[in-house]
Amino acid sequence: MxxxxxxxxxxxxxxxxxxxxxxxxxxxxxxxVLISVTITCYLTxxxxxxxxxxxxxxxxxxxxxxRNMVRTSPEYASLSPQQQEEIIAIKLNLTIKxxxxxxxxYVRSLVYLKNALTLDLGRANILVSDxxxxxxxxxxxxxxxxxxxxxxxxxxxxxxxxxxxxxxxARHRGSLMDRIMVGLTFLSSIPGWFYGIIFIMIFAMYLxxxxxxxxxxxxxxxxxLLYALDILKHALxxxxxxxxxxxxxxxxxxxxxxxxxxxxxxxxVADAKGLxxxxxxxxxxxxxxxxxxxxxxxxxxxxSWMGAMVTESVFNWPGIGSLTYKxxxxxxxxxxxxxxxxxxxxLGLTMLILDIVYSIIDPRIRTGLSGGY
Amino acid sequence: MSPRSVDxxxxxxxxxxxxxxxxxxxxxxxxxxxxxxxxxxxxxxFFKENDANKMFDLIEKGEAHEWQWAAPVALIDRIxxxxxxxxxSSAGVFYTLDVNPCTFRSGFNPFVNAKMREALNYIVDREYxxxxxxxxxxxxKYTILVSGFPDYGQIIDVAKMIESKYKFNLDAAxxxxxxxxxxxxxxLKDGKWYYEGKAVTIKFIIRTEDARRDFGDFxxxxxEKLGFIVDRQYKPASEAFPIRYGGDxxxxxxxxxxxxYEAGFDQSGDFWGFFAGAYIEQGAVHDPVFSExxxxxxxxxxxxxxxxxxxxxxxxVMSVEDxxxxxxxxxxxxxxxxxxxxxxxxxxxxxxxxPWSRTVRLKDxxxxxxxxxxxxxxxxxxxxVALGGWVWDAAVYMPTQDYGFMEGPYTVALIPLRVKEYSIxxxxxxxxKQTPEVKKVDxxxxxxxxxxxxxxxxKKYVNVGENKYARAKVTLVYDSPLGKYHDxxxxxxxxxxxxxxxxxxRTSSSSKIYDESAVPGFIATMKQFIGFKVIRSNPVxxxxxxxxxxxxxxxxxxxxxxxFTLSGFPYFPWHDLAVAILARQDGKLGFxxxxxxxxxxxxxxxxxxxxxTILNEYLDKAIREKYVPEWIKDYVTPDEAVARYQKLxxxxxxxxHFWVGCGPYYLYSTDPVGKVAVLKAxxxxxxxxxxxxxxxxxxxxxASLKVPEKIVPGxxxxxxxxxxxxxxxxxxxxxxxxxxxxxxxxxNMLLSGVAGETTTEGLYQIRLNxxxxxxxxxxxxxxxxxxxxxxxxxxxxxxATIAVIPPASYITLELNRxxxxxxxxxxxxxxxxxxxxxxxxxxxxxxxxxxxxxxVGVVAIxxxxxxxxxxxxxxx
Lengths: 373, 876
Prior knowledge:
- By secondary structure, chain A is mostly helical.
- Helices cover 73% and strands 0% of the residues of chain A.
- Chain A has a domain at 136-330: Orthogonal Bundle (MetI-like fold), CATH 1.10.3720.
- Chain B folds into six domains: 1-32; 34-84 and 355-398, no CATH class; 91-331, Dipeptide-binding Protein, domain 3 (Roll), CATH 3.10.105.10; 402-662, Dipeptide-binding Protein, Domain 1 (Dipeptide-binding Protein, domain 1, Alpha-Beta Complex), CATH 3.90.76; 699-805, Sandwich (Immunoglobulin-like); 827-876.
- The radius of gyration of chain B is 39 Å and the shape is globular.
- At the A-B interface, helix 2, helix 3 and helix 5 of A face strand 1, helix 2, helix 10, helix 11 and helix 17 of B.
């Protein structure tokens, strides 16, 4: 046995040179990801703040709000107009200070960037977490589990349904089921939130078997187990709407994807040899498609963590999507930057992990590393 | 009989008895059932739901009872058609056409000219905006005063005159605009205006989020008909605000803007805020007479209510002539409410005021649960020191609180809540409504030992000192007993005294709990505070000396009460806040957002969140150290303090929060993630649930008129007015006055006055004397009557048409009438004559017959006599 054949089992198939090349490649990728994340974060800050224009918008909104408040408040009714103007000016300055708008935008943007890169997401300007904290981290991570419960569940479920069904149709091309599913692909053009509205009308309004929306019943059960079950009950309709919308196109896309592999010569030969269907599927179709499948699943999961603004609004679901929507409306930049940073880091990390996973599962990729894959 | 059968019989009898009692309870109407302490309801559940259609369904199905947010216009028809879903409406938000009155640094602004601004009133069809575009979810707005609000009601005569005068009339606008534009040097060429060779383009910022988009389109179309080019800039708030409010009006970035504002009940200051004081730093010029009137109104520079109303009448007319803001629509917020729910709703704030929680109940039922949807819930940290402004948070905490006075739902006057009685002494020359509680004196001397301030450094109260005078003295007597807080601790004088010094502690840089953000508001309001003196501790009686004045006595009393203690009554116990003070001193929690940010810690939230563990930790510390804040050391012993902390501990262990109030409901639980808050009735509350039920009976008076067939100038006339409510006469004691206006078809006012009372309840007389009727020109006119109630600010109205005929016509008519009468009589007489003639003939014929009969009779007698004589002669 050659020395290079005695490599550790985890990196089975890695030669010494391959491992060195892989490591170099990995470090370069890590560096590239960090730069991408930095640029992404700073661009997000610039866009969220509109290059500093948001300050002008927020300050003029504050002026109007404070003026209205002082004008209609009985507490200040006895003051002269001049005194009221003084109060307005002082309150405006204090609020500007509270929101951090007294610091010039470009200085603030660098502070946001530094916080973002160090994952110290800071404090929100306006929003408060449901549990009452101003820390951006607390605000985002409080919402994350509910988003995962809803959208990640729907994404994972949908993923496996699409794979299995797509595979089946690929192997039964031209069948009645295949023709029906292909014909119904257009149903995916309707977004999930729209199906959500229809499902609410059917299941909540007319049948009354499922709730209209929200996280829990009113009032919520005090028993923790019942509370958890209540949440699951409320998650049913949004998951269904999301699944239903994505099903048709997902099945169709996977069907076509697996068709490509199904029509390869080696699959035909395997068919001709009379190999069991299961073996053909696992060894000749799924295995070569694995990198793509893993990539889709990984990116799908990461994407699901960002939630969906409209679906969460329709179902009154307290997820990341509705949080982002609120933050955009209120121009609470730390929250917008925070959600983007988390997504950017997750995406970068996922890509790095995928690179490692590819090189493990696909020897072609390992060998091709020297060619700059 | 076996013992078992006896027991069985007893059991059956008891069951029947209990069942009968239960059935009887069900049968007894709610009003006859025992009135509980606390709220009518057992439970109120608030939850977040921001979809109006969903809420409509939930209310229709009985799964929810109310939605405390304005329903969209598109849903109004469904609401009105529903059997289960009712609604209440409130005004308070209004839309205006904001006009830039400044001279631009470059470019032409035709609206520098006040006549041009005034002309804009004629191009707006307010009825179309309110009834067509907004489908009735709005009222036409002609002036800055919100129609239906107390200020509008007080000077309704002038308001109606303005509404008549400025009705939609494009021709009138054209006449004014053409003349003024020409006078300014503009030239009309091919139907378009040019100034110094350039086409006059009006930059119109049109808000897009609501009906203002359609308003803007309508107004733009009218302006285009009048020869202007309109640059319609459709913008949401975020883009519009920097231009409209953020920049300098002289930059010429806008001419017109579709504004939306909120109105307070007292709008007397709006003449300055919206008109005379608008843009003056940017060189805008307003009528100096108007400016002076507006200034006097905003600084309460008048000596009586009558003088104030006189100033307001003038200001109202001049504000329309100024037209820096042109009224468009008073928006009505429609709140969906189940028809099974009754409550008192505020004229402008709807359910978001205290009377709602004091009166809300299920119809004909004691107890029960209602579910109330809110647009959002549990948005901001809840602490009584720096409460947030979100209405949906207020909906949750208000039922748990009690104040000294609460806002009445229908009037400017406040209603004493925890204050049992109040009296006011003001120095002569101070303008205030004269009520039994108000007394005018030569001087209001402040006792030297009244407390003026809290010395943060030396930790002692500072007295007012000698020779101090105030404009007003307010004496408050609080109800006794004071009752308990929700954690079962007694409300004491210490709770009252706690809040006064806290204000000084928070605004002094020498204090450990200094908060920069608290300073401006505190200093501004304390400028008019002189001092207070506690006269008695049971009942708590306090005299408060202030320089602030208000035309409405209850408002003055409330303002003074709030300088003395939290919201006029310490609805939050001192021992609860003391725990937070300890945490604040260590920098673990901050009261305000700015404070928390500068300390790098969380903001105090007594309801939920990370504050809970921190407060619990400091509660233990307070117990260990027997902590009593310095400023109430004279009112509480350490052992008393510990006893209170122990009660608070029990409360926290049971309910897992620190929100302790003293209102009719207490906070039972919150689910900040699920956005649900549950309140339950506090049955140890000192008052009964029906305490404010009279608010439900208060109604706007209805007026109907009975007019004479015709009125003649120079001849007196009487018009009978009936004031009623739901078919019953409106109690005279609740009517302040019944005013009438007589207007011609063009809307010009001819006569106005006050109707006189009669001896019959609900019946009034308008007595027009000869001089008054002689002022009425011939034609049909409208008599409008306004009945002002002292329990409802909105006046009731009714109208009728009268016919005024000229004297000549009247005489002719009378002559005709007399002639007709005479003719009728003549005919009657002729008929009589004929009858008489007939009778005469009859009589004559009778006479003849009689004569003949007499003649025959005489002949017969003669014959008889002759026969007798002859017979006698024959015998002889």
